[in-house]
Design brief:
4 helices; binds fe (ii) ion
């Protein structure tokens, strides 16, 4: 993706989020220079990898295959083994109409995926087989706001604004917006995007950025190179 495209998606996404009355935290609007200046003082932002995460999964066709994410809060993955500490995370995301987030599962993370407004959110779901792969036959059973919904393997779960689904580790899921762009909330176990995403197809998790203009804001995937973190 070109950096100019990322800058534009951030602007559009911010306006879409605000249109629902959801306001991002102040660190969303720090410039790259301010992030560099803050360093240790705001290490909590960088170490938890909070912030903008615009991804085309490395495939260069964001409109068809992509997701807008902003990680608002995130705990410490190491604390999971202690069963104590900040073990939770929150993201706000946008799936555009017919824009696919590809089939994947998590090993550690349980997540509630919430339709916070806009179009319908469609999820294609499969249960894992004994090796963790896709079970092409097993009935899918997932809680939707506390009520179990049963679907055939690969069935489509459609969530209207206000509805949410709980996806336990192992459940395979792909999702997209139907009839319009969708504002999506994610409330989950602590999140490590570097290790805890297993995709069905061999794709990346982050975008390759072509630097045609200066970044308005850094992406989480820029922190390593730009901030040496
Ligand atoms: Fe997921």
């Amino acid at each position: 993706m070109k950096r100019s495209g990322v800058n534009e998606i951030i602007l559009e996404g911010d306006a879409f989020i605000r249109s629902f009355g959801y306001i991002l935290p102040p660190f969303a609007y720090w410039s790259p220079e301010e992030m560099k200046r803050r360093g240790a003082e705001s290490a909590g932002v960088f170490d938890a990898r909070l912030g903008w995460d615009i991804t085309d999964y490395g495939q260069g066709k964001f409109e068809e295959l992509g997701l807008f994410l902003f990680t608002v809060r995130n705990g410490r993955f190491e604390d999971m083994s202690k069963s104590a500490g900040m073990l939770y995370a929150e993201k706000i995301m946008i799936s555009r109409r017919d824009q696919i987030s590809p089939m994947h599962r998590h090993v550690i993370k349980a997540e509630d995926i919430i339709n916070r407004g806009g179009g319908k959110l469609v999820l294609e779901l499969f249960m894992p087989d004994t090796e963790g792969g896709i079970d092409a036959h097993a009935e899918v059973s997932v809680p939707v706001d506390g009520t179990i919904r049963r679907l055939p393997a690969g069935g489509l779960l459609k969530l209207d604004p206000g509805e949410s689904v709980t996806l336990l580790p192992g459940v395979w899921h792909a999702f997209w917006g139907e009839g319009g762009d969708v504002l999506i909330g994610e409330v989950s176990t602590v999140n490590d995007d570097l290790t805890d995403n297993i995709f069905r197809d061999p794709i990346g998790r982050f975008s390759e950025i072509e630097e045609d203009v200066e970044p308005a804001h850094l992406l989480v995937s820029d922190y390593g190179r730009w901030l040496a973190r």
